[in-house]
Amino acid sequence: MKKYLLFILSVFIPLLSFAQETQEVGIDQKIDQAFQPISDFFSAIVFFEVAGTPFVLILLVASAAFFTIYFGFPNVRFFWRAIQTVRGKYEDIEKHGAAELYGEDGIAQGQDLSNVDIEEHIENLDVDDNLAIDGDIVDTIRDESSAGEVSHFQALATAVSGTVGNGNIAGVALAIALGGPGATFWMIVCGLLGMSTKFVECTLGVQYRDVGEDGTVYGGPMYYLTKGLKAKGFATLGKIAAVVFAVFCIGGSFGGGNAAQSNQATIVLKEMFNMTGAASGFIVGIVLAIIVGIIIIGGIKRIAQVTEKVVPFMAIMYVVACLYIILSNFSLIDDAVALIVKEAFNPTAIGVGGFIGVLLVGFKRAAFSNEAGAGSASIAHSAVRTKYSASEGLVALLEPFIDTVLICTMTALVIIIFNFGGAFQYGGDGLGAVMIGGESFEGAGITAKAFAEYIPYSDVFLTIAVVLFAVSTMISWSYYGLQSWKFLFGRGKVADLVYKLLFLTFVVVGASASMNSIWAFSDAMIFAMVFPNMVGLFFLFPVVKKQLTRYLNAIKLKEQAIE
Fold first, then answer.
1. How buried is residue 542: exposed, middle or buried, by Cβ count under 10 Å (0-12/13-18/19+)?
2. What range does the domain containing 519 cover?
3. Whole-model pTM?
4. Do the domain assignments include residue 1?
5. Looking at the 3D structure of the chain, how many domains does it have?
6. Residue 378: CATH number of its domain
7. Which long-range contacts (CB under 8 A, 24 or more apart) does 32-38 make?
8. What string of DSSP letters covers 144-191?
9. pLDDT-derived band of residue 307, with 50, 70 and 90 as boundaries?
10. Domain assignment present for 194
11. How confident is the model over 434-482, as pLDDT tens digits?
């Protein structure tokens, strides 16, 4: 405990001294002024346009559509199978292997087992040159039955906590404020397509992970880029892409996974406690950083233990509140849905830029929220206990559905129903802020006003929800960033400490800077991860196909044995 206290004090004593020296001139403003040029610089680089559209969005949507078609709409076909996997229905074969349980020596890859003798199949296994028995990479064969640190549910909870955050509350409000109700339609489309991308990247995350001597798992795009591309004969390209991804992932952990979250938590806390002053955001940031620091010291097991309790609670709490508001205005639901569809193709929001504008707003906010294509979630999913990498890929496809199709859509319906009374004008000031009752609101503040219209004391409820969303996202992203940091700088304790110091500093930066600069930087860092990650996905998606077939055949072998 003493070393934990020393660690926390080493972060915050210098920051408190800085606050004392600069409070008279406004520490929040100083931090924002210093951060704005950095935000603008990275945003301009990442969101370069092709034919008036950011290329990164074209890449995301086109890739998601390709994977959806190539894998035969896995977001639909394997939805129930994914739920069964999370529930632990196939835990026996994932822990021991179907062949071991049912007395066979192996499972045929890529072939239908329904009308074929299993023994005959085993003698004629078609094994890829780059794969060994049971799908293992030749140079990383190990006993997978004991590999992994968390269960399917814990891995899903950790990854969902990294995606279900204030992007669902503040991000949706920002999308509607800028693009109007039509942005909701494109958010849903992006979420459904993103399920396929998430499936691919999380399967690869487990397939190419490293397991240390102490059982600690190291996984994510850094590893499937290096190992997977090396197996394909592109070792140099793999190393370069892995390093680039790790750098951007660290930036993403500081931005979208950290600063953007503390920024929105600070907005609602300052509103609830009527905090003013030049250092109010800084003070809130210090408190949040202490809370996050205590949790992240424990590593992925501590994080998983926290998220598996916090995430279901906060998600259920928030969804119930949304459903209460939506069902209380049942007669307006069809009007809201009709408006969403109409505005998706014929937007009227001021300054949105027509059809392409509203489409981009929706896709941008959905991709930021569910992170499909960014590769970040595969880092958390890599830690799962399983012998079948595709099993976790199927579990992962549930994330965009939970995050975007369900929670984001509910938030959008609440705000749209609220605005049927003409509370604010879609488009606002063009930066995400709108005028409600003569006051300016942005992000989570807009959602808070919508909740306050229908739920007494909702300011307390939403403040708790926003803070829980923020903290859970920050602790999950601290793990993502730390894994990338370890990949670049080694797995020593000193390297860990340096990263955690920097991470906690960005909690304070996010709480102090303006929403516009923080979210621009966060968007840039999250979307920058897409470029190197997609290199791995397009080289390695055939491996995913083989692993999917292998897992489905294992399930079929079990079902045949039971029959």
1. exposed
2. 18-562
3. 0.79
4. no
5. 1
6. 1.20.1740.10
7. 32/512, 32/513, 32/514, 32/517, 35/509, 35/513, 35/517, 35/518, 35/521, 36/513, 36/514, 36/517, 38/521
8. GGG--SB-HHHHHHHHHHHHSSTIIIIIHHHHHHHH-THHHHHHHHHH
9. low
10. yes
11. 888 888 887 878 888 899 889 887 878 888 888 888 888 888 788 889 9
